[in-house]
Every structure is written in C-alpha cells, then in structure tokens.
C-alpha cells in the first residue's frame, strides 16, 4: 500500500513535471522574437505540415475537416465566392472562424490566413462601400485620399473576419485594350508609385522600429502576388530571376510570394498540361504559396513526391514556410486568429460612403465644357424647368461599379446588386425641388423633341467586365450609347458622362456634345458625380492615361 502510494506520488510528480514542460512551447510565446518563434515551429513540422502551409485553397472546397486533414495554410474567396448571397458581416466572420477552428485543431495549431480581393473596397460583400476603381483614383492624384481608402477598406474587410487582401494592383497599364486596365492607377509609373499609399492605409503606418507589426521588414507589403503575364517570353510564374534573384535577394523582400489563381498551371500551354513541371518551375522560381485553388490533393501529392525524390530541395520548402510563418507571426495571427465581432458595424458605414463620395468627386475629369470657351455648360443650374436624364448607365448601380463587384465580372442592376446611390437618384437629390427630372434610358426623337428641356445629362459607357472578358480591340462606346448621345444632343443642350474602365473613342460624337465628363467606374456613391456637375465642388481630376483619338491609334 505504502509503496503503491509512493509510486503514485512519484508518478504524479513526473506527470506534473511533464505537464509543466509541455505548457511552455517557444513558438507559442508572444514574448519571443518572431525569428525564434518561426525557427522553433519550423523545426517541429513534418513535410506534410510544411506543404500544407504552402497550399491555398478556395472557400468553396474548404471545410474545417479538409483544412485540418491537409494542414492547409490559407483559404481564399475568388471573385464572387461568398458564403451565401447577401451574406452579412457576421455570416462571413463565422464562416472564416469555422475554418480557423479546423486549422487550430491540428497538432501544431497553425492558423490559416484567409485572403480576398478587396480591389475597390470590400467588393465581394453585399452592402460594402464600393470605391472608384483604380483608374479613377489615378485621376485624383491624391495619395492621402488613397491612403484613407486603404484604412476604410481594411476596416470593412476586418468586419468580415478576414485579415488579408490581394491589393493594391500596382500594374502600370500601357495598353487600354487589356481588360484589367482599370485596375491600374495610371500609365505613368510615377503616378502608380505615388498611390501605393493604399498599402499604409491597409496595413497601418510603417513602424519606426524596423520590426513592428505588421511589417515583416519595415519595407512595405507582406506578400506579393505574381502576375499571369510574361516578360521577354518567360512566364512570371516561372521567373527565377525576378522572383528570387531580384525581389527576394536584391530587394531583400521578407514576406511571401503567392501565385495567382491557377497561375502555375499556366506556365504550360495549354494550362495544366504538365502539372509536375508547373510545380517544379513555379516553386523553383521562388513562389512560396500556391493559389491552387481546387485540385489541392493533386498539388500536395505531387509536391510531396518531388521533395521526397529531391527534385525540389528541402531548403526551398523551408524558405517558403519560413516566410509564410513569419508573416503569420508578425501580423499577430497566432494571438488573434478569430474575427473581432466589434468590427461588424464597419461594413458599408456612412463615413466610408462619404469618403467614397469624395473620391468620386476628385476622380471626375472634365474634358469639354461648352461648344466655345464663352459658353460653359457646367456647372449645371439646380433650378430649371425640366431636365432629361438618359442613358444605360444613369440609373444602374451595377454598371457604375463595373467588374469585381459582388461577382467577378460585375453585373447590371440596382438593389439586386448592392446598396448605393445611382447617378439619377443623386441628380434628383441635388436639383431644386421645383425642377422636374424626366428619366428615359433610351429616349426616341419624339420624346426628345416633343418637350422643352433646359438641358440633358446623358450617362453611357461600357458594361461591367473583369480580366480577359474585358479585352477589347474596338474601344468605342457600345450601342445604344452613341445613338442616345446623338438623339439627345442634337436637340437638347447636353452633358455626357462616360462610365468606363478606360478612355473610349469619342471622336465621331464629341463635336455634337456640349460638355463631356469622364467618370471612370465610380462605385456605389453616385452622389459624388452630382456634387460636381451642379457645382457644389469644382472639377480637379486629371487624366491618368492618354485619351486616344481613334481605335486604330492604339493598335
Ligand atoms: C486574378 C487575381 C485574383 C485571383 C483570386 C485571378 O483571376 O487574376 O487578381 O487575386 O483571381 O480571385
């Protein structure tokens, strides 16, 4: 009995001692320097756990079970990929938290990092504030405004429990035929550079001490996404020189490099023809996290076998995982892996809408005002007898927001799309109550000639599009835009407002137009357009790209 008791005591002491030791895990200690935590964690990881960290999968196939089974390191929402149509901030947060629980249930409890395209506000989310697309922000030339947009966007994204955005796009678009041109601030690298203030808006100011949160090296972004493009015939996703030699070694980038959506698949033509080769070339070039996004077991199995067969060296895997973990530790994800429910009210809040309205005002570019210098048409008088508002884009929230809005390609429509103010409702809210506003999307000459209008506002432009769907060799205003312009402007003094992701050919009609305004893709706050048309604010926007005379001049 006595010896049994003594034995139990010894056992108890041993268990306590073991427990005591188990309680202290270096990488879990926020007091330890990030480098110490990363090294400690990396030293405990199996190959499967490391490869999981390098794998980013799409929300649609990301259950908590799959995340824990494959040690998945990151999940994303592709364009339009939402937990449910019109999901609330809370519904988003609980989806992300549910996935996070899966990640935290694993042996090492490494949190996932959830990422999303928030490229003009938190654009996938119903009732988020939608800011002008980057081409419009380029016209503002206002780095401080763009920084404030970054701050507001960060809050709206955090409201949905998401800590990571794929933005800003720092492309310098030189060719407007490219369907992504509106994602670029300008054709001028200096303008693009000046508006990277979005980054300090999104992430917070660069801390004075090099190592502060969330900056991995005191130098700016924590992740870089490789583009689909090629340079001198080499796919960016396979470009060792730019990714490893230049970005990581010469510029000493300390964050992680992520692929684009199936970006490594496209190293071959046709895409995915030789996935093993794509994996070898992409990871060999220096990509750390792969946006797979669906066939992740194929990716994991293939990468595992390439590492086991020493085709891809373990040192490359360790570099990738080191970088991913460094970002996760630095941003505080281990300490705060879940959504902060107190932020839910940030989504689409009034202050952010006011900011977007300011951005719209500053993005408008006045290109013609009156048929002669002596007859300016703008600003328009608020008090008038009767005015006509016409055109496909006058009363259409979806069209004024463009692509990357609620869905990947964007869509036409109003309340069915999201919440905001159309240009027509903005005009109605701005004019004097005694002014009659007649709206006709596509008026015939009878309507136009039969009535006596003081002036007309015609709002036309491009349909929403994103990426390759917007590639276009024929940069003209789509019909019925030109016919509406001609019908209205031949009888009524008219202002044409163009809603487009790029300059379009206006040469055939510009002579018949009294005033012409480029409004780009202004987003949900159409009131900003009326603020300037009616003179509450002046025009300050400047073209951020060349306005070409004809389609052939850009061929
Ligand atoms: C786009 C990226 C985007 C990704 C995820 C790709 O098609 O090129 O800009 O981040 O999809 O939505």
Give a nutshell description of this structure:
37% of the residues lie in helices and 10% in strands. The chain is of the alpha/beta class.
How is this fold's topology laid out?
Blueprint: H1 2-23, H2 34-44, H3 47-53, E1 55-58, H4 64-70, E2 74-77, H5 89-104, E3 113-116, H6 134-140, H7 143-159, E4 164-165, H8 189-194, H9 197-203, E5 223-225, E6 230-231, E7 234-235, H10 240-250, E8 256-258, H11 275-285, E9 290-291, H12 296-308, H13 314-330, H14 350-363, E10 365-369, E11 386-390, H15 397-401, H16 423-430, E12 436-440, H17 445-450, E13 455-461, H18 481-491, E14 494-499, H19 507-510, E15 515-518, H20 527-533
Parallel strand pairs: 1-2, 1-9, 2-3, 3-4, 5-8, 11-12, 11-13, 13-14, 14-15
Antiparallel strand pairs: 6-7, 10-15
The chain binds beta-D-glucopyranose.
Structure, explained:
This protein has a six-stranded mixed beta sheet, with helices on both faces. It has helices spanning 2-23, 34-44, 47-53, 64-70, 89-104, 134-140, 143-159, 189-194, 197-203, 240-250, 275-285, 296-308, 314-330, 350-363, 397-401, 423-430, 445-450, 481-491, 507-510, 527-533; strands at 55-58, 74-77, 113-116, 164-165, 223-225, 230-231, 234-235, 256-258, 290-291, 365-369, 386-390, 436-440, 455-461, 494-499, 515-518. By secondary structure, it is an alpha/beta fold. It is built from 20 helices and 15 strands. Helix 11 (275-285) crosses helix 12 (296-308). Strand 2, helix 5 (89-104) and strand 3 (113-116) form a beta-alpha-beta unit. The longest helix is centred in the first third of the chain and has 22 residues, at 2-23. It is 37% helix and 10% strand. Residues 46-205, 219-327 form the Glycoside hydrolase family 3 N-terminal domain. Residues 1-22 form the signal peptide. It comes from Zizania palustris (Northern wild rice). One of its GO terms (molecular function) is beta-glucosidase activity. It holds the Pfam family Glyco_hydro_3_C.
